[in-house]
Amino acid sequence: MPEMPEVEGLVQFLREHTDGRAVAAVEVGAISALKTFSPAPTALVRRVVRGVTRHGKWLDVATVAGAAAPEADDGELHLVFHLAKAGWLRWYDEVPRTTVKPGRSPIALRVRLDDGAGFDLTEAGTRKRLAVHVVTDPQDVPQVATLGVEPADLTLEGLRVLLAARNQQVKGLLRDQSVIAGIGNAYSDEILHAARTSPFALTKTFDDDASARLHAAISEVLTAAVAEAAGRPAAELKDAKRRGMRVHGRTGLPCPVCGDTVREVSFADSALQYCPTCQTGGKPLADRRMSKLLK
User: Fold this and answer.
1) Which end of the chain offers a freer environment for a tag, N or C, measured as fewer CB atoms within 10 Å?
2) Residue 199, pLDDT score
3) What's residue 72's pLDDT?
4) Is residue 168 part of a domain?
């Protein structure tokens, strides 16, 4: 799933390639991806892109009425989308001329620009979760309106408050979008490895030192990942993310810090990775399908 660093990379890329361009056409390939119906996606046609931003893991393409659409109102219209677990943005310098046919391909939405370029929102697999909203205000999207603090705005004192608010596993706290916006499964693994913290550590057990280590790890891991994503074409962002991982997605490989074997805990539809030496005092965690920890 694209998380904050990759989404920020996509924002920078789209901002560079779409700002000032008019939308020439919008084609819907998956009706299920549309979460709003009024305004319709075609309402974006002939409007001009005037900014691309990010809200957590959500991308926001803002458009305004252009000279080609004098009948449109003066307000903004936003294309807001979440790529979900298996979604991605495919950029074209020249969009294929063929029209997208609903249900015939992984393409959920195609946006054509007036210079011939554009992009597809695609989703692989059978579980379709990609979400597309066309709204006059991004806050009209409930998942955007309820987002928590951006990691860059999270102070150490603010993190201490979040840790003390309720007693839960720290992995779950980091992934909760209503608490901290933009961190998912992959970067929570990386942050906890950098903080030398078990993913199952309970938040109310964090003392000042553990809280400071976690805060520093959030900043360091995400800052480095954003820098790695900056300036890359959309097609390169996934590979750049994988190359930067120390534990996530590296089950069975040596930890780059201590050399211990990276372990995995599996869930119904996801998994986490960690290093026993760096994070759990050398004790492997049992697979959660066994509903207990190894003693």
Assistant:
1) C
2) 97
3) 57
4) yes
Q: Quote the number of domains for the chain.
A: 2
pLDDT tens string 243-276: 999 999 999 999 999 999 999 999 877 899 999 9
* Confidence (pLDDT) at 102: 87
The list of the chain residues with pLDDT below 70 reads: 68-74, 288-295
Cβ burial, residue 127 (10 Å; 0-12/13-18/19+): exposed
What domain range is 119 assigned to?
4-145
**Domain for residue 295, yes or no?**
no
Structure tokens at 9: 């990379």
Alpha-carbon distance of 89 to 57, in angstroms, equals 13
Predicted confidence at residue 105, as pLDDT, reads: 85
The residue to which tokens 């694209």 are assigned? 2
Domain-ending residue, one of 145, 175, 200: 145
Please give, one letter per residue, the 3-state secondary structure of the chain. CCCHHHHHHHHHHHHHHHCCCEEEEEEECCHHHECCCCCCHHHHCCEEEEEEEEECCEEEEEEEECCCCCCCCCCCEEEEEECCCCEEEEEECCCCCCCCCCCCCCEEEEEEECCCCEEEEEECCCCCCCEEEEECCHHHCHHHHCCCECHHHCCHHHHHHHHHHCCCEHHHHHHCCCCECCCCHHHHHHHHHHCCCCCCCEHHHCCHHHHHHHHHHHHHHHHHHHHHHCCCCHHHHHHHHHHHCCCCCCCCCECCCCCCECEEEECCCCEEEECHHHHCCCCCCCCHHHCCCCC
Asked whether the whole model's pTM tops 0.70, one would answer yes
In a shared domain, residues 283 and 157: yes
Q: Report d(CA 213, CA 173) in Å as an integer.
A: 15
Let me know whether 205 and 261 are in one domain: yes
pLDDT of residue 294: 43
Distance from C-alpha of 68 to C-alpha of 208, rounded to nearest angstrom = 58
Domain boundary among 85, 117, 145: 145
